Amino acid sequence: MPGKRMGNQVQWESQVHNIADGDQMSLDAVSPYLLRRQPDVSQNRTVNIKPLKAAPPPKLPSNAGSNLTAYIKAKFGNSCYKEESFSRWWRSYFSLEDEMLMDNNTGCSRSISDVYIVGVKKCATDAIRDLMAIHPYIMYSRTRTQEIHFYDRHFDEGYGWYRRQFGFSKEWQVVLEKTPQTFSFPEDAPRKMAELNPQTKIIMILCDPVVRAISDYVHELKVKSYKKINPPYYRINRQSFELSVFKEPGKVDVDNELINMGMYSKHMKRWLEYFPKTQIHVVDGNDFKLDPVSEIQKIEIFLGLPNFLQKSHLEFRPPKLFCVTFPNSRCPRTKKKGREHPEVPYEVLNKLYEFYRPYDNELQHLLNKTFSWMR
Ligand SMILES: Nc1ncnc2c1ncn2[C@@H]1O[C@H](COP(=O)(O)OS(=O)(=O)O)[C@@H](OP(=O)(O)O)[C@H]1O
């Protein structure tokens, strides 16, 4: 279970059972650092603890972005997984299973994420994740599930459980995770994340909150996850979007997650309370859709990674999606992404934009940034 804050110190004692997976570890030895990097004995496999000082990554060859063999070597050759894993990894949407591990996995351990895409749901978080996961130095860790949902659904299972959701990585690799709900729910996620790993780099993609709400409405109508997992609280009226977002005529339902998630400044303040701005990279969703490569290149700089993604790695698929063409081709499934949105009356849109204006102004002030939908 989570550590307790005692002054500036976090007490980790109650987590020891979960973390150690049966290991004999003294209480003193348990620190956030060890939580990230410790031997994994859950699979009866001996894995070395990573050195405290990261070994430098191997040099990225200049043809890694154009020649498939060179790419596979750059991505897997120095990693914990066999080069032959590439096809399976790609087909299974970045899944890394233990049987794909190298026999000699010196310097490998399970590590929780260095970089966390916290949201925002329906602002193209999948597309950002997909483009980042291609980078030879980034390991998007998918073992059992694409989204771990630790803070919102599995926190009671403990940090040991959390760590086991990740694949193996080397110290120089950047471990990436994405759970887009985390931006707004649960409210104490920033505090818990900062306690666990205060160095976490956070990526947020924000988009027009009204369009986001419509996209979320269409999504929830289809997948109905709000029926299975509650909280967060969603009120979805199958008849129309407007009946879902207004409690009564003219009164916006602020408790409805369709609306709450887009009150960006309210959530942003909590993240800024626990993480310095230098650790948070915010992407404007519209800029990303117009020029995804430039936005990913900014993320590469933010993470201190050599540039990998190029325009030649993508192609646009009208009317609104782009597809990946390297190291293999992949387009988002149109059943899941780029869904048609319902027509929403002009007055409804207007009321919602009016509702969000103070939050947008506050966000602009907090980040000193004017987003595309505010212009
Ligand atoms: N490849 C690609 N190119 C351009 N735009 C894309 C792409 N993939 C996703 N999108 C846009 O992102 C919206 C889905 O957002 P998320 O991926 O964050 O959804 S989710 O939270 O993971 O469910 C999705 O929303 P809808 O249009 O409502 O389906 C799209 O607008």
Helical segment tally? Answer: 16
Give the rounded overall mean pLDDT: 86
Give the total of beta strands: 13
Strand order of the largest sheet: 5-7-4-8-11
Helical content stands at 25-40%
- Low-pLDDT residue spans: 1-34, 38-53
**Shape, per Cα inertia axes:** globular
Separation of termini?
45 Å
Multimerization state? single chain
Bound molecules: 3'-phosphate-adenosine-5'-phosphate sulfate
Count of the separate structural domains: 1
- The CATH topology, please? Rossmann fold
The biggest beta sheet is recorded as: 5 strands, parallel
Strand content: 5-15%
Explain the layout of strands and helices:
Layout: E1 4-6, E2 9-11, H1 16-20, H2 32-36, H3 68-77, H4 86-91, E3 109-110, E4 115-119, H5 125-133, E5 138-140, H6 150-154, H7 158-164, E6 168-169, E7 174-178, H8 189-196, E8 201-206, H9 209-223, H10 225-228, H11 241-245, E9 246-248, E10 251-252, H12 257-260, H13 264-274, E11 280-284, H14 285-290, H15 292-302, E12 314-317, E13 321-324, H16 346-367
Parallel strand pairs: 4-7, 4-8, 5-7, 8-11
Antiparallel strand pairs: 1-2, 3-6, 9-10, 12-13
Helix pairs in contact: 13-16
Please, could you describe this protein's structure?
The protein has one domain: 3-Layer(aba) Sandwich (Rossmann fold). 36% of the residues are buried. The strands form five sheets. Strands 5-7-4-8-11 form a five-stranded parallel sheet. A two-stranded antiparallel ribbon has the order 1-2. The radius of gyration is 21 Å and the shape is globular. The chain has 16 helices and 13 strands. The chain is an alpha/beta fold. The protein is 35% helix and 13% strand. It comes from Saccoglossus kowalevskii.
